[in-house]
Hints:
The complex is a heterodimer. By secondary structure, chain A is of the alpha+beta class.
Amino acid sequence: MHEFSYHRPKTLADAAKTLSAASDGKLVAGGMTLIPTMKQRLASPSDLIDLDQIPELRGIKITADTVTIGAMTTHGTVAASTDVQKAIPALAKLADGIGDPQVRNRGTIGGSLANADPAADYPAAVLALGSTIKTDRRDLSADQFFKGLFETALDDGEIITSISFPIPEKAGYAKFPNPASRYAMVGVFVAETKGGIRVAVTGAGPSAFRVKPMEEVLAKSFTPEAVAGITVPSNGLNSDIHGSAAYRAHLVTVMAKRAVAACR
Amino acid sequence: MPNISLTVNGKSVQGTVEPRTLLVQFLRENLDLTGTHVGCDTSQCGACVVHVDGISVKSCTLLAVQVDGRDVVTIEGIAKNGTLHPMQEAFREHHGLQCGFCTPGMIMSAIDLAKRNSDPDEHQVREWLEGNICRCTGYHNIVKAVQAGARAMRGK
């Protein structure tokens, strides 16, 4: 990879300051996406600001109605958390299916969301659960967060600090993983939230999106059969060597059925 | 160039490295610990797995500067006084390797599994090893070795 300067600030304020002072700086969280990207020279920041030593970014807090996860909390920690397993089991299961064990030992929820890979798992959960993404500047709703391919509502230099998930009545996640990378070719997260049914899809399009027709039929009948008849249009969906847009559209319905069946 | 100071296989180690030096490069080239292998360039194969602060990670996807102040254990660090670690012994006993290239990463990964789950079933072993690729064995004996190694680690 190309050369860069490395910083490991101890506070969020230092991280923000160092990032804004850099000519072309990037934050590194777990590094499970950024470092491979830099190894391929697809990213060459002037400065890397490591968030590893900022304690306030880690940790899981549970209240009666909310699960709040620090941005630097690893997938492995979320998966193994008995608190999350009890409050939102689908979220713990989703985290347990990301990548492989070594990736889960380093990869973080904040890094995943800030990167917004079209095939990442967390965006489907964050969108379906109606979560709030908290940054060092403001709160962002899930509905406003995912804007496009690797594109989020975050401003330059803005740092995710935690994500708050309202605890749903029940939720389920089903993904069709790419056999090599285990990224979601299509992943569907279904949640019966206090504000209604939400269905969010990842892997199929440039970024996570909701499927309102599925939400409507599930509100009337919360069964796999109810969503079996709903197909999403394939235009605008991803088409690559792993699958065509039409195939992904088909997978959305299949995974939606499985996600509903998996709801707990 | 940054200076780093860490523990590797129980010994204090110092180094002066470019930030872009990968941990696997530091281990292999600066410390001559060549048991940790580079098998891919996509962070998929797991031949580079080591332990950092007790948990298994891919050393090809970490920078040496990121482990400043930390405790690293490689395949060279798990035998005690010339006696193989129970997981190593299990791989030997159950023929869990052929060319041996994936083996250090398999063993380091398996030890992490055994610490979390002292009696993994076949499915759990195969799922845990999703981050470790073997081109020789078909995984059959690796799974047997990991289960035997986990049993031995818990004293059976």
